[in-house]
Specification:
By secondary structure, the chain is of the alpha/beta class. The protein folds into three domains: 2-56 and 63-195, Nucleoside Triphosphate Pyrophosphohydrolase (Alpha-Beta Complex); 198-389, EF-hand (Recoverin, domain 1, Orthogonal Bundle); 608-877, Metallo-dependent phosphatases (Purple Acid Phosphatase, chain A, domain 2, 4-Layer Sandwich), CATH 3.60.21. It has 32 helices and 28 strands. Strands 1, 2, 3, 4, 5, 6, 7 and 8 form an eight-stranded mixed beta sheet that branches. A six-stranded mixed beta sheet has the order 15-19-20-24-26-25, with no helix packed on it. The protein is elongated.
Length: 880
């Protein structure tokens, strides 16, 4: 049967199917025995595929008909023929005509119709019982009672649905025997099931979604995306309504789990039945999707899957060895040391975090608690496919019609925007390009978790093949996998994969088709072979992930680029819409989308150190305070073609919100670019990235005003949840210390900064060092009061900051000592408005930069700093 089913699925065609449940009464007992065929240790109902003739069309009629399958066949006759063949070699007759006991109708819109699986029951004469039970055990038929069916182990029945059918027949016969009208004309009644995609995807209000329903929306699936998963499920499961491991083993292998398919299937199988329902299959695919975030509801579901993945004996406990396996995978996926000594030590630390003592296994509740409270970190990289299941399925022969139309995006009607005519934007943006805005939808997404695997490592740290090109300083270069087309305005219009161009003959030899394999591996002949080779070669897997992320950075349907496209619409003046206005955009959907963005970027911040170490060239920007207009000016002047195509790092020193009118837009833009170029775009936390400060100023009220009280509060909390995890300082080229406020009073080494908690919800009480870095100022003449000099002398150059009524001031002695103590040459900070946009102090070694012009209605300019070629250059931006 398995071979036959495989053949049916392989040819891409589905047909009606008839199955038969043969039963007979056991002599002298009031119980039934049900007859099954056996193949490979599994019991199944005999069945037959019903192929029907295509309906004759009128002459010249070339239009396909939605009812092109004729259903004028006699299903009950087919059922009797199946029963006769099943009883071959045994004498006797059937006591009843075949009666329909179950009808399953499966709908696939792309195939223009539905298909049905009909199950009939047939009663055989009692003599069959004696003959069958006398057969030797090697016979391929088995007759079991209902009680014996209950006792069968998982996997011994092809589908557990068989038990439901047997119960239905048994109960129906009991009712008939008790009925006075029992006779040949009596019928059992049929169980009717209709399977379609809409019941799972539609009809759920966002506010009423469970964590599982939210998970399905987390990767940004739209109706077409879900239809692709649905069709794959039907082709794998039909004529049943569940899939077993063998049905999807090949798919799981292609997604990156060669030889580990059973573990992934176990992760999906939350009911431990050995089968996956349509719902479990959908949720499993969403859980492993590269675009599913690892925060809030989706994170809980994913963690439950991860727990089952490592729970090899399915006892709802993780043994020490299973925890060690998890720790090993986390370290390997992060590219860290996986020696046994290191893994043993890391496992011991993990067990302490989980509260495991005396070799007691780890419970699911303890695991979820530790991960949910961010005590045990790193699970976001686990259980991730090499590529999004949707992307894989739409690129294979099974779904050729969806290659262009389906992606992990959103319905164009989800965010309603006023209709725009043929006018263009301020920089020539056309109506077609504004269609990207319509892709927005509320989705809890993104770690875009696959990129999250790389977020704690720069591109240079990702292992490269031995054939990669190496520079004189020892750093290795590798060829990017795509070419980008850019307009004169700086806008990216198109990207092409170099490998596709090579295959089309446009370029000669990129080496990308063989770079994934080692020197000792044969060239991959197909995507399947490529993935299999990458799974065997750890460095190749990292390379594949790196290239996928690189491509995603330019994908117009990605979360970050959709957000940027929406902000372009917000920025531009259009017909019936002024500049810096959302027009008729559905703000509920926009708010939900921003929440998804925050969930995604939070995980980026979580995986960054508290003290960043960057290299030049590097642009440094100071306070923005909700000034979206000036942020756009900086974009057009510094990274017009995007950060990925600009050969520099970008460091923002904090204070993104409050005071200005567009705090949420500034945050959305910066978070989007952080997702788009996480290894080049860096954000530090300022003193206004704190809840209490925002409630005293304007950002909290801004969120409520733009999104309403309920959703606005959720948006505000999501933004601050990301702020809580932001890095606090950076060192550029090992010499220039960058911070929002000022140097802290630090007794130990700079490594002390790494011990600052993450997340840091209440900086003032949880880490006074962090609070100083967000608030400290260099002392000015007006800061001197009675006793200030004595306080500075007693505290090594630090004194209380009376002007701000919190944190500290520092003088030249404290500043010089800080540089000398930590081997630094300069400090770049923000935090104070300057008329020229910048100020230089302490003999040119301390620079303050402010990047929001006309702050609070003033006349100040906006500036930034460029570190390049061992020069510190101040750049003032004309924002007029």
């Amino acid at each position: 049967m398995s071979a036959k089913m495989s053949q049916m699925q392989g040819n891409g065609k589905l047909h009606d199917v008839v199955s038969v449940l043969v039963y007979f009464k056991t002599k002298g007992k009031h119980e039934l025995r049900f007859l099954f065929c056996e193949l490979g240790g599994s019991l199944y109902l005999p069945w037959e595929e019903v192929k029907m003739k295509e309906r004759c069309r009128r002459v010249g009629d070339t239009t396909p008909s939605p009812e092109h399958w004729r259903r004028d066949v006699s299903y009950d006759k087919i059922a009797r023929d199946i029963a006769v063949r099943t009883m071959e070699g045994m004498s006797g007759q059937f006591s009843t005509a075949p009666q329909l006991v179950q009808l399953t109708r499966v709908f696939i819109s792309d195939l223009e119709g539905h298909y049905q699986h009909l199950v009939f029951c047939v009663q055989a004469e009692e003599k069959f019982s004696t003959q069958l039970l006398a057969k030797p055990p090697s016979d391929h038929r088995r007759a079991l009672t209902l009680a014996e069916l209950y006792n069968l182990k998982r996997g011994q029945l092809e589908r557990r649905d068989i038990i439901t059918l047997a119960e239905h027949v048994s109960h129906a016969l009991c009712r008939l025997m008790q009925s006075k009208s029992a006779g040949k004309s009596d019928t059992f009644g049929a169980l009717v099931r209709e399977v379609g995609v809409g019941w799972l995807w539609e009809g759920q209000e966002d506010g009423q979604m469970s964590s599982y329903q939210a998970l399905l929306r987390a990767p940004g699936y739209n109706h077409d995306s879900v239809s692709v998963l649905y069709e794959e499920f039907i082709r794998s499961s039909y004529p049943h309504t569940t899939v077993c491991l063998n049905d999807i083993k090949e798919l799981l292998s292609h997604l990156g789990w060669k030889d580990k398919e059973e573990s992934v299937f176990r992760a999906f199988d939350k009911e431990k039945t050995g089968e996956l329902s349509l719902e479990e299959f959908f949720y499993g695919m969403a859980a492993i999707d590269t675009k599913t975030n690892h925060g809030q509801g989706p994170a809980e579901v994913r963690c439950r899957c991860i727990f089952r993945y490592y729970d090899t004996n399915e006892d709802d406990r993780l043994e020490i060895s299973e925890v060690e396996a998890m720790v090993r995978d986390i370290e390997a996926l992060h590219g860290r040391d996986t020696s046994q000594q290191t893994i043993t030590a890391k496992t011991k630390e993990a067990l302490q975090i989980f509260g495991v003592v005396d070799q007691v296994p780890l419970s699911l509740s303890s695991f979820l608690s530790a991960v949910g409270n961010l005590k045990f970190r790193g699970t976001s990289v686990l259980l991730r496919a090499l590529v999004s299941p949707i992307m894989h399925l739409t690129s294979t022969h099974r779904h050729p019609s969806r290659k262009r139309s389906v992606s992990s995006d959103c319905s164009e009607n989800d965010l309603k925007i006023q209709k725009v005519g043929s006018d263009t934007g301020l920089d020539g943006t056309t109506d077609n390009e504004l269609e990207a805005v319509k892709m927005l939808v509320g989705r809890d997404l993104v770690d875009q978790e696959l990129p999250m695997v790389l977020s704690s490592n720069s591109e240079a740290s990702i292992p490269l093949s031995e054939g990669a090109f190496q520079s004189q300083d020892g750093q290795k270069y590798s060829l990017a996998q795509h070419t980008v087309k850019v307009r004169r305005s700086g806008q990216i219009t198109d990207i092409h994969r170099l490998l596709d161009m090579e295959r089309a003959g446009e370029v000669s030899d990129t080496g990308l088709d063989t770079d994934e394999a080692s020197d000792h591996s044969p060239d991959p002949k197909s995507p399947k072979e490529l993935v299999q080779q990458c799974m065997k070669i750890p460095t190749a897997r990292h390379r594949l992930i790196n290239r996928f992320q690189s491509y995603e950075a330019f994908d117009t349907k990605s979360l970050s680029n959709e957000m940027v496209a929406a902000l372009r619409f917000f920025e531009h003046q259009k017909k019936n819409k002024p500049a810096l206005h959302w027009g008729e955009v559905d703000m509920v959907k926009l708010g939900q989308y921003i929440i998804s963005l925050c969930n995604a970027v939070r995980e980026k911040f979580e995986n960054e150190p508290r003290l960043l170490r960057l290299s030049t060239p590097c642009y440094i920007l100071g306070d923005l305070h909700g000034n979206f207009r000036d942020l756009v000016c900086f974009e057009k002047g510094l990274w017009r073609v995007g950060p990925q195509l600009t050969p520099a790092n970008f460091l923002f020193l904090g204070d993104y919100v409050d005071r200005g009118a567009y705090g949420i837009e500034v945050v959305a833009y910066l978070f989007a670019l952080k997702l788009q170029a996480s290894n080049k775009f860096f954000l530090l936390r300022g003193n206004h990235e704190v809840r209490e400060i925002q409630q005293a100023f304007t950002f909290h009220s801004e969120c409520l005003q733009k999104f309403g009280e309920r959703l606005g509060q959720s948006v505000w909390e999501a933004v601050n949840s990301a702020f809580d995890c932001m890095p606090l300082a950076a060192i550029v080229d090992k010499r220039i210390f960058c911070i929002h406020g000022g140097i802290p009073k630090l007794e130990g080494s700079l490594s002390e900064l790494e011990k600052i908690p993450c997340p840091l919800v209440h900086p003032e009480s949880e880490s006074y060092t962090a609070w100083q870095m967000m608030w400290n100022d260099p002392i000015a003449a007006e800061d001197f009061h009675d006793g200030t000099e004595k306080e500075l002398e007693e505290n090594k150059g630090f004194a209380y900051n009376y002007k701000r009524q919190t944190a500290l001031l520092f003088n030249r002695a404290a500043f010089d000592n800080f540089l000398k103590q930590f081997g630094l040459t300069h400090v770049v900070r923000a935090h104070e408005v300057k008329q020229a946009g910048f100020e230089i102090q302490q003999g040119g070694q301390l620079m303050t930069v402010f990047s929001s012009s006309h702050y609070c209605g003033g006349s100040n300019e906006a500036a930034c700093i460029l570190l390049h070629n061992y020069q510190i250059r101040v750049i003032r931006i004309d924002t007029s």
